[in-house]
Amino acid sequence: MQTVTISQKEYNELLDKKLRYEYLHQIIEGDIFSPPQSKDIEEVISSFKATGLYNQRFIDSLKKGLKRSSYFK
Questions:
Q1: What's the CA gap between 13 and 23, in Å, rounded?
Q2: Domain locations in the chain as residue ranges
Q3: Whose CB has fewer CB within 10 Å in the chain, the N or C terminal residue?
């Protein structure tokens, strides 16, 4: 085994990248492409609104997209 010396800054950057990769890997392992639990557009929209994380413009865009989706027809 060889010893490699790197600066604290490089170490912190590598650690940050590793943690980001692990986080992304955990998300991908989950079932992120599963269909919504409900086929009711209004129920999905109200769930998004209830989180308080999304502005009205996003909600309107989401609603428009869901209405065009064949899954919700």
A1: 15
A2: 8-72
A3: N
